[in-house]
Automatic annotation (TrEMBL):
Its cofactor is AMP; FAD. Keywords: Electron transport, Mitochondrion, Transport. SMART domains: ETF. Residues 31-222 form the Electron transfer flavoprotein alpha/beta-subunit N-terminal domain. GO terms for biological process: amino acid catabolic process; fatty acid beta-oxidation using acyl-CoA dehydrogenase. It is found in: Mitochondrion matrix. Binds 1 AMP per subunit. Binds 1 FAD per dimer. One of its GO terms (cellular component) is mitochondrial matrix. Heterodimer of an alpha and a beta subunit. The electron transfer flavoprotein serves as a specific electron acceptor for several dehydrogenases, including five acyl-CoA dehydrogenases, glutaryl-CoA and sarcosine dehydrogenase. It transfers the electrons to the main mitochondrial respiratory chain via ETF-ubiquinone oxidoreductase (ETF dehydrogenase). The keyword Electron transport applies. GO terms for molecular function: electron transfer activity. This is Probable electron transfer flavoprotein subunit beta.
Length: 263
């Protein structure tokens, strides 16, 4: 009896055109959000490409998706040049607010359900540097009823067994979890160092499939559920002072209105 063929893996990588992680974040003059007139980058597709390189022929496709204004297509083109096979752009107006995590998770769920070959692994950033929410991956896993591994610093996939061993960054150390596919992974910056897209790959990316959708196509409403009242920078830290004796320390504490309690 001939053994059944192993189904090849399909990987979906949500990416976001966000402020580059090396840029110092500043609040805009209107105090409605952060200043976006700076260098932008994306959550890299690097790990998906490395998984395919490690597993050879076990990965059938790597598809990238982004939700954003027309200029977000540049982000997808870069991801295609880095090694992704196809892209999906859910386009929203330039003036529209950035979709909230729940809206993004619902849109990703709709996209997954549209894929004829299904999706086995979703690899996305743990949080975007602009809203810093860190919620989308967890919400997507909850909506899909899938396993999830967050804050990943290492991902090893066993295509034959349909499992993944993920090393997670936790307070005070590392944790390794074993997850069955399908799986949502949110990645930490220490996971890898993204490659640069070569000129030949940039040219090849122009011929790769590129699908454009709207929120209406997905049956998703991106209307904000939250209202941002004001965004402000934290107060500047003031320098500390040194004291020579315990008596001076107690006097300083008393001046600050801090009283000591007896045990």
């Amino acid at each position: 009896m001939r053994p059944s063929a192993v189904r090849l893996l399909n990987i979906l990588v949500p990416v976001k055109r966000a402020v580059d992680y090396a840029v110092k974040i500043r609040v805009n003059p209107e105090q409605t959000g952060i200043d976006l007139n700076v260098k932008h980058s994306m959550v890299p597709v690097e790990e998906a490409v490395r998984i395919r390189e490690r597993l050879k022929d076990a990965v059938k496709s790597i598809k990238v998706v982004t939700i954003g204004p027309p200029k977000s297509s540049e982000t997808l083109r870069t991801a295609l040049a880095m090694g992704a096979d196809a892209a999906i752009h859910v386009e929203i107006p330039e003036s529209a607010p950035s979709p909230e995590p729940l809206g993004v998770a619902k849109a990703l769920k709709a996209i997954i359900e549209r894929q004829p070959d299904g999706v086995d692994i979703v690899i996305m950033g743990k949080q975007a540097i602009d809203d810093d929410a860190g919620q989308t991956g967890q919400m997507l896993a909850g909506l899909m009823g899938w396993a999830q591994a967050t804050f990943a610093s290492k991902v090893d996939v066993d295509a034959a067994q349909k499992v993944a061993h993920v090393t997670r960054e936790i307070d005070g150390g590392l944790e390794e979890v074993r997850c069955r596919l399908p799986l949502v992974v949110t990645t930490d910056l220490r996971l890898n160092e993204p490659r640069y897209a070569s000129l030949p790959n940039i040219m090849k990316a122009k011929k790769k499939p590129f699908e454009k959708l709207t929120p209406v196509d997905l049956g998703v409403d991106f209307a904000p559920r939250l209202e941002t009242i004001r965004v402000t920078e934290p107060p500047k830290r003031v320098g500390g002072g040194k004291v020579e004796t315990v008596d001076q320390l107690l006097a300083k504490l008393k001046e600050a209105g801090i009283t000591a309690r007896r045990a």
